[in-house]
Design a protein that fits this description.
Length: 133
Amino acid sequence: MGIDIASMDTSDASNSGIEIELRHPVTDAALGAYITVLGIESEIARDLRDAQTRKAQQTMQRAGRMVFDSPQALKDRRIDICVACTKSWRNMTYKGADLPFSVPNARMLYGQFGWMLNQVDIAIADIGNFLTS
C-alpha cells in the first residue's frame, strides 16, 4: 500500500502558522527574536496572490501587451506577501527599543533588512514547515 496523500495536506497548518527564530545572516546564530508566519498555501497568501495576478492581467489588458514589473515592484510584491503572512512576533527590538508587531512595522523591517525578508520568505514558502509527521 502506498502513502496516504491526505496525510500531506498543508492547508490547516498553513492557516494556523508556525513560529520561526531569526538567525544572524552571517554566523547563523540564533537571535532570540521570533516571528509567527502563515504558509504560502494559507487563504491569506492565496487571496493576495490572486489579487496580484488580477492586477497584472488588468495592466496587460490596458497596455495591450506584456508588461514587466520593475525590480522594486517585484520586491514590493514579495514584501506584501511576507507582511500578509506575518501574524505576530516576540522579542523584537529596533534601535534599542521594543518593537511591537504591526503591519507598518513588519513592512518597515522587511523593506530595510533583506536578510530578514529572505528568512521569512523562505519559511513561508517551505511547505515542509507546514507538514505534520
